Amino acid sequence: MDLVTVLVLTVSCLLLLSLWRQNSGRGKLPPGPTPLPFIGNILQIDVKDISKSLTNFSKVYGPVFTLYFGMKPTVVVHGYEAVKEVLDDRGEEFSGRGDFPIVERMNNGLGIVFSNGKKWKELRRFSLMTLRNFGMGKRSIEDRIQEEARCLVEELRKTDGSLCDPTFMLSSAPSNVICSVVFHNRFDYEDKNFLNLMEKLNENFKILNSPWMQVCNAIPIFLDYLPGSHRKVLKNFADIKSYILKRVKEHQETLDMDNPRDFIDCFLIKMEQEKNNPQSEFTTESLMATVADVFVAGSETTSTTLRYGLLLLLKHTEVIAKVQKEIDHVIGRNRSPCMQDRTRMPYTDATVHEIQRYVNLIPNNVPHAATCDVRFRNYVIPKGTDIVTSLTSVLHDDKEFPNPKIFDPGHFLDEKGNFKKSDYFMPFSTGKRMCVGEALARMELFLFLTTIVQNFDLKSSVDTKDIETTPVASTFGRVPPSYQLYFIPR
Predict the structure, then answer these.
(1) Residue 389: what are its φ and ψ, rounded to 5°?
(2) Where is coiled-coil annotated (predicted)?
(3) At what angle do helices 284-315 and 317-330 cross, to 10 degrees?
(4) What is the pLDDT of residues 449-473, one digit of tens each?
(5) Residue of 74, 82, 169, 464 with fewest CB within 10 Å of its CB?
(6) How far apart are CA 198 and CA 214, in angstroms?
(7) What is the pLDDT of residue 153?
(8) Mean pLDDT of all residues in the chain?
């Protein structure tokens, strides 16, 4: 190695070290494992199961500690008390959205999930109000879900009791509900455009939960200069946005300012009202990003929970037998389940809650960020620092939920068999950044699951003891293993 090469390497290392010290010296951050230059703690984290690594770190460093994903510090909050303090008690100070490089390249900081500041507050307020006006959490949206549940049952009947993969059908049902709110129409389960959208959504969710994507999010330069599955994610999302743009243009041509039909119409009317405001957050680009957020979040998360839930019921035959007994007693087999039934069905309600608790769909939440310099538990967390709140540490708390790794609806029942609420139940997060569609998702999960179990016996192609329920990925989200089953009409 010649002298010039040695000098270049030496200077480069010194620059990296200097930058590292400058970056890691901001504030009085909580303790954590010693990071390596450039890559941080990535080699000390199991990128296939990040929440497991966070639990192990918490045993050494306590409920609040610092990790480096690449060169940027991230404060991790672990355990119910610390998570509640950050998300609820001090929600405003931690209401920023943390870095998620692959998503930032998809949405450019727009929309409601990954935006910040004034943009986020205005778009979230508008979206909540509009979704409520279109029935979210009300009887009108319940009617839509019931109708879609009947369509789903008909699709399942078409399998004629033969072995099938339920992925597409369970993706289509919740997606159709959100489509009726956003696009003012549902799709036939055989519609080619719909099939294409569902395929891209499912593929993206799997790729985003791959170990490679966790490395790319820690070291974002990889996204720009290396080949890999991240390029497929960007291509799929571009296709989804292209479809949304097409629908937006159709809406613009038929818009009636006095009679909005759906979410897109309401956004277009808001754009018209603010057309003379140069600081308006309501632009075409913002519309596309917001609709994409509502559509993707309203489709993928609920459908994955449904798919995982059926797998758990398939394995735990004693649970589904109790649920069916309660359904037969309260509802019977000749009318559709409704939300009023839930208060008279404690075991079914507990089962739906336990599915969400056990599945733990977004184990480490969507990253938050400090909106100002924050003094937190004797530490100083600088403005802009990413905050990871471990929902696993809450949903799988062994004091609140004995044997948390065991699927047991009893976690939500008292000694008399009545439904028991838990403050630890926060699968949708909590506080100012909690899921906008929580009310819709909870309604869908109850109505879809009870309608399926009301109409079908679930039969596995393998012995129940051989059914694997461990997720195939547990990074940003948890992906259930693929499976097939028989839907046998009751």
Answers:
(1) -110, 120
(2) none
(3) 110
(4) 999 999 999 999 999 999 999 998 8
(5) 464
(6) 23
(7) 97
(8) 91
Please enumerate in sequence order all residues whose Cβ is within 8 A of that of 189, keeping only pairs 6 or more positions apart, or say none: 151, 155, 168, 169, 172
Q: Specify the pTM.
A: 0.91
* pLDDT band per the 50, 70, 90 thresholds, residue 444: very high
Cα dihedral across residues 115, 118, 121, 125: positive or negative: negative
User: Which of 429, 128, 175 has the alpha carbon at shortest distance from 301?
Assistant: 175
pLDDT in tens, 361-385: 999 999 999 999 999 999 999 999 9
Task: Give pLDDT tens digits for 391-401.
Answer: 999 999 999 99
Q: Closest Cα to residue 385, out of 401, 400, 374, 395?
A: 374
b or e along 333-372 (b: 16 or more beta carbons within 10 Å of the residue's beta carbon)? Answer: eeebbbeebbeebbbbbbbbbbbbbbbbbbbbbbbbbbbe
CA distances from 343 to 294, 327, 339 (A): 29, 12, 8
Structure tokens at 265: 């119409």
Look up residue 437 and give its amino acid.
Answer: G
Given a cut of 50, is residue 26 above it in pLDDT? no
pLDDT digits (tens, 9 = 90+) for 234-258: 999 999 999 999 999 999 999 999 9
Question: In one letter, which amino acid is 56?
Answer: N
- Strands 379-381 and 386-389, bridge-based pairing: unpaired
- Residue given tokens 């390497």 in the structure block: 9
C-alpha angle 222/226/231, rounded to 5°? 95
Helix (H, G, I), strand (E, B) or coil at 469: coil
Encoded tokens for 464: 């129940």
